[in-house]
Structures are given as structure tokens and as C-alpha cells.
Write a structure and sequence with these properties.
Elements: H1 25-37, E1 50-54, E2 57-60, E3 65-68, H2 71-74, H3 83-95, H4 107-119, E4 126-131, H5 134-149, E5 153-157, H6 166-171, E6 189-192, H7 197-200, H8 204-219, E7 224-229, H9 245-255, E8 259-263, E9 287-290, E10 301-306, H10 307-310, H11 326-341, H12 344-365, E11 369-375, E12 378-383, H13 393-405, E13 408-409, E14 411-413, E15 419-422, H14 430-445
Parallel strand pairs: 3-13, 5-6, 5-7, 7-8, 8-9
Antiparallel strand pairs: 1-2, 2-3, 4-10, 9-10, 11-12, 12-15, 14-15
Length: 448
Amino acid sequence: MTTEKTVGGPDLPQERKVVTEIPGPKSQELHARRTAAVASGVGSVLPVYVAAAGGGVVVDVDGNSLIDLASGIAVTSVGNSAPEVVRRVTEQVAAYTHTCFMVAPYEGYVEVCEQLAALTPGDFAKKTALCNSGAEAVENAVKIARVHTGKDAVAVFDHAYHGRTNLTMAMTAKNMPYKNGFGPFAGEVYRAPMSYPFRDGLSGADAAARAIDVLEKQVGAPNLACVVIEPVQGEGGFIVPAEGFLPAIADWCSANDVVFVADEIQSGMCRTGAWFASEHEGVVPDLVTVAKGMAGGLPLAGVVGRAEMMDSVHGGGLGGTYGGNPVACAAALGAMATMKELDLSAAARRIEQTMTDRLRALAEKVPAIGDVRGRGAMMAIELVEPGTTKPDSALAGKISAACHQQGVLTLTCGTYGNVLRFLPPLVMPEHLLDEALGVLEEATLGLV
Ligand code: PLZ
């Protein structure tokens, strides 16, 4: 099978165009091959097979151009095939592709670490270790916190998502599909209640007191190496904790020799309208995990944090064959340069404004929308049975499917699967965002 368009990037026509059924015939053909060859445990939200992507669109092999409200799960914040990413990756690929930083190092890795030290919150000496995936970054943060504190226990929260490896499955809250049948899980992982304003109605201070009570009574600070928390929860439902919750947890950690780890894998790198979501409440984490948006689509992740904590690990204790691969580092340098040049935090704040206005107006008309929330370009609506907080995952799924049919790529999330989330690339053209919201409004009004 040949596809017409192979060049992506921002020059792709920025339009929504549905020219076949979705998925179209070529996608269906590929899907049949995939079904025979790819393990069925690996899913796809929408099996349209991609030919090119860029700016705010994903173009499939049948010529459909979908408005991208997913960014490959908060990854392509600078857009697919962003010019500066393409340029640096191309140069790097031609120079050398891999030596292994643990064998013979190179400048790109060092420069990514320097930049992360400058961009993450906190005015103190910082160091970074790079790896390949978000889950691996979270695992490394736990390793570092354990060595640094000499303690074992790890605290996480309800609705948390931290990955699919053994330790991070233990840290992730939701059973299906992430954990079911995959145990036994790593030990010494404890779960505290999260601040979830729509569902608990608690102030940040009260929610923090409730969580700290669990940590003190069920774990004990003398056993606790770290608290790991997403400042805005991702897979768990785009939950923004009540104001004051994060600072109270961070303060308790620092008073109790507990490492405060912000998992900013989804919320970081301009996504929420700041370099890191912790900044919205002036929270300064000891360690920050980063991935996704940092490298414009190439696999790169890392742990950034206080130099004395990072350096508590013995030489050779951190690493991995591909960690900080030179091509991925080149991509990250291109992505970070683009974020600065285009001020993508400001772009995320503009997206928040547009989406909040439109989603709130929709919620006025649709009682099934129980909550409109999020920060920056990480926005969501939570679907419930009208007048209650009873989750309506079926409705969320139907709205999402209707958007797909109309050429808008949406995602759901949430412990109850009833949250529709929106993660446009931060370079999304305004007219496309407007159009996508129009499609969403029509789809929703047609279903309630
Ligand atoms: N921490 C906060 O959001 C990845 C995963 C989707 P990896 N989220 C998307 C899925 O079904 O696998 C994520 C995250 C937060 C950690 C991770 C894990 O990052 O790069 O997927 O390992």
C-alpha cells in the first residue's frame, strides 16, 4: 500500500476533512493486517492509520484530515514533525544514532539536563538522569528517593496513573485495564485519598489533612521515602486538586524527610500554561519526572531534582542502554527551543480560555456535564447522570465516538471512564480549535 502524503509538519493543510467512512477502506485493510500481527492487548483509540500529521491535524491513509485533540496523549505539544525537531533530528541521525551515554557520552544529553535544571521549579542546584519512558522515570525517582532517605515506602493517590511496569502498576490506581491479572505487584506502595473537588467538595486544606492522616496512621513518615503525585492527574480524570492541597502535601513532606516527587509527565512542558503545573501554586518539588511533551514525539524521559538527592545514588546505579539517546535528545532540544520561541505556555493559556468559555456554555445546556475543569491545554468535561455525581461512561464513549466520525480525535479518561479530555497540540490553529468545539457541541447535543 502506498500513501500519497508522507510529509507532515505545520505546512499540512490545517483543515478538517472527512472523505470516507471512519475508519476508511485503507485503514480497515491495515487493521486486518494489524489484527493478525499485533498483540490484542495493545489497543488503539481510533484505528485510522496515519499518513502524516502536523499543526493541529492528523491525516490518515484514506485522506481524512482529523482535528487532533489528543497530541498522542499530550506528547506533540509543539505539533507533529515540528520544523526545529525535524531539523535537529535529521542532523543528529546523519552524524551518529547511538553510542550509549554510559559508554561514550555526547553534548546533547548534557544540554537537555542543563535546560531541565533551568526550566523546572526551584532555585537550587539540580541534576538530571535521562531514560526512555514515563514509567521508567517514575521508577528512577523512587530508586533515588529510597537511596536518599534510606526508607522504603512510597505514597501515591487515588486515581493516580504512573505507568505499566511492575512498580508503576502498583502505583497506578485503576485496575482495568492497567493491572488486572498482572500481579503480584511491587510492595511498600500505599495509597492516600486525592483531592477531587467535584466528588469530595473538600477544601484543599481539608483534603490534604485527610491524606496526611492516612500517611501518618497507615504508613508513618519514618518509613516513607517519597510521595509521588501528578499536580493535575492525567489518566485518572484530569483532576485538578483544590487550591492549597498540593502545597500542604509538599510542606508536610519537607517537614518529615519525605521526598516530594511531582509526576509532571503529562502536565509538564507548557501543557498547563506554565513550564510545569506545580508552578500554578508555587510548589517546588524535590524531584520532577518529565517525558511526553519534552521531545516532540521521540521517546525521552527523565528525573530532574535537587542535586544532593540525585547524587545520593552510587555510580552506575542509574542508566539504561537507550536512556538519553542522542536522536531523542536532539528532538528535545528542538522541542524546547520551539516552546520558548513560540511561547507555548501562553498558547496553552489561550486554549484554556477558549475551551473554558465554550465548555461552560455547553454545560449550561447539558445537565449531564457535571464538571468542566483543567488547566491550560489539559481540559476535560465529566459526564454524569443529570443532577447526580453518578458517572456516565457510556455517554462519554458515545460523544467521543461521534466526534471521531466527524473527524475530531478525542480521548476519554477517568477512573470511571466518564471523562472526555482534550489535549490539543499547543500550536493548534484557533480556527481548528473552534471547529473542533463546534463538532463536540453538536455531537453532545445530539446525544442527550
Ligand atoms: N505518569 C502522569 O500520564 C503516561 C499512558 C497511556 P509512559 N500516560 C499515558 C497508556 O494507556 O499507557 C504517564 C502519565 C503519568 C507516567 C506515565 C507513563 O508514561 O511513557 O507511558 O511510560
